[in-house]
Amino acid sequence: MRKRFLALTMSALMAASTITGCSGGGDKAANKDVVAPTEPFGDTIVYDPSVEVNNGEDITIELWEWGSDDLFQQIIDVYTAMHPNVTINLVNNPWEDYWTKLPLALDGENGPALFNIHNSYHENIINYLAPLDIPIEDLEADFNGVSAHVIDDKMYYIDYGMMTGSVYYNKDMWEAAGLTEEDIPKTWDELIEVAKKLTIKDGDTIIQAGLNFNDDFHQNYLLGLNYQLGENLFKEDGKTPNVNSEVMQQIMQMLVDMYHEDGIGSENFGEKSSDSFGQGQSAMVIQWGHYYNTLKTTWTNIDFGVFEIPTFTEETPYAYNRYNGESTFGINKNASAEQQAVAQDFVKYFLASDEAQVAFNIAMSTFPAKKSLATNEEILANPSMAILADHIDRYIWPGPMPATVENSLKKAGQDVFYNGVEIKTALDNAQAQIIKDMKNSSFESVESLYTYASEK
Amino acid sequence: MGAKYRKYQSKSEIILRNIVVAAMIIYFTVFLIIPIIIAFAGSFHNWNPLSGTYDFLGLENYKDVFSSGLFGTSMINTIIFSVVVIIFRVGLGLGIACALNSVLVKHKTFFRAVYYMPVVTPMVAVAFVWKFMYNPQIGTINQIFGLDVNWLMNPKTALIAVMIMTIWKDFGYAVVMYIAGLYSLPSDVMEAAKIDGATSWQTFRYITLPLLKPMTLFVVITSIISYIQAYVQILIMTEGGPGTSTYLASYIIYDEAFVKYNFGYASALSFVLFVITAVLTWMSFRVSGDEEA
Question: In this model, does residue A8 exceed pLDDT 80?
Fold first, then answer.
């Protein structure tokens, strides 16, 4: 009865929201009480605030982004405090519109000089980017993962942070099941055993799932665990996908067994694993770093912990998981020379400033690509980053994959779990779809640039 | 003809007419005809306007459309979706309109507003609410009816669930259209039927229904055009899943154009769909409209 009342109330609230609409929008009020640095700072890339920008003459540029206004405004305030002649107008375009509006704006004369980048849209924006005027060797000296971004000996953007998947667990459920910190699993077998203890059933009906990966077959399992088993996502040519291999079938089979043999969850329990964990229905989920902030801001009642993704054996794997980078800003090659110069200077400041790097990585829950910040106290205070610190070099980036790779594997997972399709057939279909969709793509995997690529 | 009537028009009327007509021509040229021409040309190319790719492919995109199993599946889904939703939209619309037209029903304005409210509510918002209601664990529908169904992730129920939501949202449009149709029926015919001793059913079957045929044709044709283009509810509620089991033809176009940025293939799909829509509309006119003519 109580659940029914809750469901009705929630429905009524949601229905009401359709009538009242949504309101929102970030408070862009700039904090002008900023102390501007006066001395040069940075490691190899050094920023000198005393060097004038645009010869000290007034200039205005735009910076486009899709969220976290306060974070961007924070670094804009510091920069404009150093260079009062520069005005940077922050423009927020929602993610849904951003990737349509941005290329069209960059194609014209009045596009933003600076803009936030997500590497999944690399192919649509690369033609509009101006190369960074910072030497590649300087970037490599200060940051990890730089070589994977080199295009024809030029660098257009790099990663400031590395995001990957980790296991989030509900501490209250953990304790109720009689588990302690000692029970944190290191291998998949151990995780399954722990998940069994965390699963609660009423007859055959699951009341609490030990592990939930619904709507998430692709992100953290099919597109990551292959590396633990020593296999890349793309074949030697860097262009042909490798998603119907025996290793991928093995991973999919493991997922099926987790639900159907071990009974630690169900494809029909908890529509979306991330929501199910937040709603207190599931004890463990594997999610990417951004989930840490989601839990902190959206699901504030959940007392959670984080541990590193398990491996198949206790030995060090070829790679623990795939990561994706949070990218530095893009510079519009069609902007005026003066605006581009300011944009170049701003990016240099962003790369040299530890404060800016720490702020962005904490906000995004990404592990810093800047080498000197690997042991930063503020960074390691965040559990989702601290657990990666020991072997962050054992995470691999396949490159800016076209969306079809993720989407096709998501469909393959749904085909297996909901449509009763054989694992091999589902993965063969995904392979064929990806090949078809990437027929005209310029994407080439950078897995061969991984530090431990020769171990494969 | 023009010369005959022109002498009765004032100069200002002619100027106003020319301005209005010119504005309409410019509007349709800029926002309809030119984009259609660009899309038609694009359908013969590997085209991504965001990256500037535009390579001639000939009929390659059209060959891909007709050899695509997914397009076939999505067309079957689209036909099932359209037929079922239109039948319920027309049936419910007509039934409720007749009920509201009855002298027995009070507060007609209130009921008209209630039935029309979902129509003016944005599809995105409605789809989100219904998606929540279909949630297998905390959704209202399972809770109220004591069911344990994963409505949107079961290939047997997913499309049905989307159709139920669409019917709920859209039948109010047919209600209002039919009420307008019922108001315009000639009262002398109804009175004559009453005097001749026709029962309520006979009056409805042999007088009301035939006289409402133009309105039915209008509702059916606008519904066909609308439902062949339906994709928002799919985007919000199932994203075409599970797998590809709820893909509708328009959703593939969205997916190809705005997810994969394959505008050439999406344009080819659009033109195939355009032709299918035109043929279906023509057939509807032929089947139902000949008698009106």
Answer: no
My answer on whether B139 and B223 are in the same domain is yes
- A269 and B148 within 8 Å at the Cβ level: the answer is no
**pLDDT, position A19:** 39
Tell me whether residue B228 is in a domain.
Answer: yes
State the CATH architecture for A163-323+397-455: 3-Layer(aba) Sandwich (3.40)
Residues of chain B contacting A418 with CB distance shorter than 8 Å = 150, 153-155, 241-243
B167 pLDDT higher than 70: yes
Q: Which residue segment(s) compose the domain that B232 sits in?
A: 74-185+212-289
> Mind telling me how many Å the CA of A170 is from chain B's nearest CA?
19
Question: Is-contact B196 B113, C-beta < 8 A?
Answer: no
Query: Is B207 within a domain?
Result: no
Residues of A in contact with B48 (CB under 8 A): 123-124
Predicted confidence (pLDDT) at residue A28 exceeds the cutoff of 50: no
Contact: B129, A104; criterion CB under 8 Å: no
Q: How far is A20 from chain B (nearest CA, A)?
A: 11
* Counted domains in chain B: 2
B:137-176 residues touching chain A, CB 8 A cutoff: 137-140, 143-144, 148, 150, 152-155
The CATH number covering residue B246 comes to 1.10.3720.10
Nearest CA in chain B to A100: B50
Question: Does residue B186 sit in helix, strand or coil?
Answer: coil
Q: Read off the pLDDT band of A34 (50, 70, 90).
A: confident
Chain A interface, Cβ < 8 Å to B: 3-4, 6-8, 10-11, 14-15, 17-19, 99-100, 103-104, 107, 123-127, 205, 267-271, 276, 279, 281, 402-404, 407, 410-411, 414-415, 417-419, 421, 437, 440
Quick check: is B67 in a domain?
no
Mutate which: B71, B114, B129, vs A, most A CBs within 10 A: B129
Choose one of B61, B89, B109: the last residue of a domain.
B61
Of A15, A100, A418, the CB nearest to B154: A418
If asked whether residues B36 and B125 sit together in one domain, one would say: no
Count of Cβ atoms closer than 10 Å to residue A420 Cβ: 10
Task: Tell me the C-alpha distance between A215 and A88, whole Å.
Answer: 39
B167 in the same domain as B113: yes
pLDDT-derived band at B282 (thresholds 50, 70, 90) equals confident
Residues B19 and B81 in one domain: no
pLDDT of residue A202: 92
Contact flag A281-B137 (C-beta cutoff 8 Å):
yes
Give me the percent of chain B exceeding a pLDDT of 90: 79
Q: Do domains A29-158+328-352 and A163-323+397-455 have the same CATH topology?
A: yes
Domain boundary among B22, B38, B61: B61
What's the CATH code, domain A29-158+328-352? 3.40.190.10
At residue B293 the predicted structure's pLDDT band, cuts being 50, 70 and 90, is very low
Say if B269 falls within a structural domain: yes
Q: Is the pLDDT of residue B38 over 70?
A: yes
Q: Are A18 and B261 within 8 A, CB to CB? A: no
For residue B148, list chain A residues with Cβ-Cβ distance below 8 A: 205, 268
What pLDDT is attached to residue B280? 87
Spell out the domain ranges in chain A.
29-158+328-352, 163-323+397-455
- The string of pLDDT tens digits covering residues B108-160 is 889 989 999 999 999 999 999 999 999 998 899 999 999 999 999 999 999 99
Let me know the angle formed at the C-alpha of B68 by B66 and B69, rounded to the nearest 5 degrees.
120
Nearest-by-CA chain B residue for A438:
B260
> pLDDT digit string (tens) for A320-356?
999 999 999 999 999 999 999 999 999 999 999 999 9
Per the confidence metrics, is the pTM higher than 0.90? no
